């Protein structure tokens, strides 16, 4: 699912633009569209390029258990090159790994593939991407970041041993920034991000602020959460539902951050969503993918444990309350989402 328009800005793309860097940036831009939506897998992008430099396909991993970015890019490039639509839109990883080598034959031997993350060399929920690339015999494989997961790593070495030309470290810093939420979760067992919507003049209250497209992204990521932590005052005032109705997905379990649970009205809609657990908390959950929603008080109380902020800025001004905090962030990525600007910000304290 696509959530936005192109023309993103990345923090780590101030290196000279070589051909390899240009194609890797295309892969990065596509991958950022699915950041956090691939949990517990990392966000990954891939580009297939023809012998004259033509872009044949740009794709990204979209959901854990579904085909990886390389496979989707190869599928789309095969459809474009051959005119055969039998695999177009197929998202069954095992079938694509089986059929693409049978159908493509030597179609990719003069082509290059660019991947933000080293192609996996193990069989997990999907077959190994390095094996598919090897079988198709690509002329060149360009890799941004090496896989930090020992169980999946080794794809680059496998491809080199098979005689393919392998280039590593292209746009490495940008690819590692894309990978950072996944690395943080693997190291600590938890990744926590604060979701905030504001107007151009910083107002965060007074009803709906972000666009429908932005809200669709929020609902899509709610499906992936281990926990949604919501400020108690936000629950009292807004009386939210906090489900994933826009995308038709499973509503996340909710923890209400409050020291006064007796003041929370149990008729608020979030309590009546089927299949969810609602708890009360005074700290962040210790494990999993956690999104925090709430006002300035919630953020200030939890800021030491927040790894990132996903900020939506709507293109209008109005009167209301803003947030005045002291936590420093660095911009990793921004793009347009519907009418809004979406910024992915990393806590400076969480950088390493």
Report on the structure:
By secondary structure, the chain is an alpha/beta fold. The chain contains 9 helices and 14 strands. The strands form 2 sheets. Strands 1-13-14-12-7-11-8-9-10 form a 9-stranded mixed β-sheet. A 5-stranded mixed β-sheet has the order 3-2-4-5-6, sandwiched between helices. Helix 4 runs parallel beside helix 5 (155-161). The longest helix has 17 residues, at 172-188. It is elongated.
| Shape call | elongated
Main pleated sheet: 9 strands, mixed
Distance between the termini: 31 Å
> From N to C, what is the helix and strand string?
EHEEHHEHEHEHEHEHEEEHEEE
Q: Can you list the strand order of the major beta sheet? A: 1-13-14-12-7-11-8-9-10
Q: What is the averaged pLDDT score?
A: 92
State the helical fraction. 25-40%
The amount of beta strand, in percent, is 15-25%
* Radius of gyration, CA atoms, in whole angstroms: 21 Å
How many H/I helices?
Answer: 9
**Secondary structural class:** alpha/beta
Low-confidence stretches: 1-10
Number of DSSP strand runs: 14
Q: Care to give the gist of this entry?
A:
By secondary structure, this protein is α/β, with parallel strands linked by helices. 28% of the residues lie in helices and 23% in strands.
Summary tags:
352 residues; alpha/beta; 9-stranded mixed beta sheet; 5-stranded mixed beta sheet; 14 strands; 23% strand; disordered N terminus
């Amino acid at each position: 699912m696509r959530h936005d328009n192109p023309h993103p800005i990345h923090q780590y793309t101030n290196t000279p633009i070589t051909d390899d860097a240009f194609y890797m940036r295309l892969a990065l831009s596509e991958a950022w569209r699915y950041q956090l939506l691939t949990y517990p897998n990392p966000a990954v992008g891939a580009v297939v390029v023809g012998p004259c430099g033509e872009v044949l396909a740009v794709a990204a991993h979209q959901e854990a258990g579904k085909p990886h970015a390389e496979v989707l890019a190869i599928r789309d490039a095969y459809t474009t090159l051959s005119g055969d639509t039998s695999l177009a839109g197929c998202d069954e990883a095992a079938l694509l790994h089986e059929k693409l080598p049978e159908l493509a034959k030597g179609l990719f031997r003069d082509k290059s593939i660019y991947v933000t993350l080293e192609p996996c060399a193990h069989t997990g929920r999907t077959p190994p991407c390095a094996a598919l690339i090897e079988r198709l015999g690509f002329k060149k494989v360009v890799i941004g970041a090496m896989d930090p997961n020992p169980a999946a790593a080794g794809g680059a070495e496998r491809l080199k041993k098979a005689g393919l030309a392998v280039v590593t470290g292209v746009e490495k810093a940008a690819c590692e920034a894309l990978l950072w939420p996944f690395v943080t979760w693997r190291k600590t067992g938890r990744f926590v991000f604060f979701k905030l919507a504001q107007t151009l003049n910083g107002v965060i209250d007074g009803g709906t602020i972000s666009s429908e497209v932005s809200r669709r992204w929020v609902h899509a990521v709610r499906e992936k959460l281990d926990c949604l932590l919501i400020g108690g005052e936000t629950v009292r005032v807004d009386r939210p539902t906090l489900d994933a109705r826009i995308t038709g997905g499973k509503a996340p379990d909710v923890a209400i951050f409050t020291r006064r649970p007796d003041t929370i009205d149990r008729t608020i809609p979030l309590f009546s969503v089927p299949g969810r657990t609602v708890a009360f908390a005074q700290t962040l959950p210790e494990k999993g993918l956690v999104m925090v929603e709430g006002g300035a008080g919630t953020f200030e109380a939890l800021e030491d444990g927040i790894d990132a902020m996903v900020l939506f800025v709507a293109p209008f001004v109005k009167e209301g309350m803003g947030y005045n905090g002291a936590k420093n962030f660095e911009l990793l990525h921004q793009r347009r989402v519907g009418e809004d600007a979406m910024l992915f910000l990393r806590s400076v304290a969480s950088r390493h």
